[in-house]
Amino acid sequence: MFIVSVTYQQPLEVVDQHLADHLAFLDRYFSQGTFIASGRKVPRTGGIILATGVTREQLDAILLEDPFNQHKIASYEVTEFEPNRTGPEYAWFLSL
Asked: Which InterPro entries has this protein been placed in (predicted)?
């Protein structure tokens, strides 16, 4: 599993110009099951994406498709982790 930390490199006005295309990119990978959660950072300096079921190389290739990446709007920090504990109500998370 991967945590992708997205950090904006452009003003929010520029981010917002490409937001619809970025959301379509997210939707494509949510529908494939690669992305399992995403959302904005607070304050709004970027976002977080949780990804699973791909290798690091595959994820890097996917992130190249993001309009935020293509237009140099954001940078990405990718952290791989292996979850091994959850609260009882989130045990399903370990099978991702």
From this structure: Dimeric_a/b-barrel, YCII
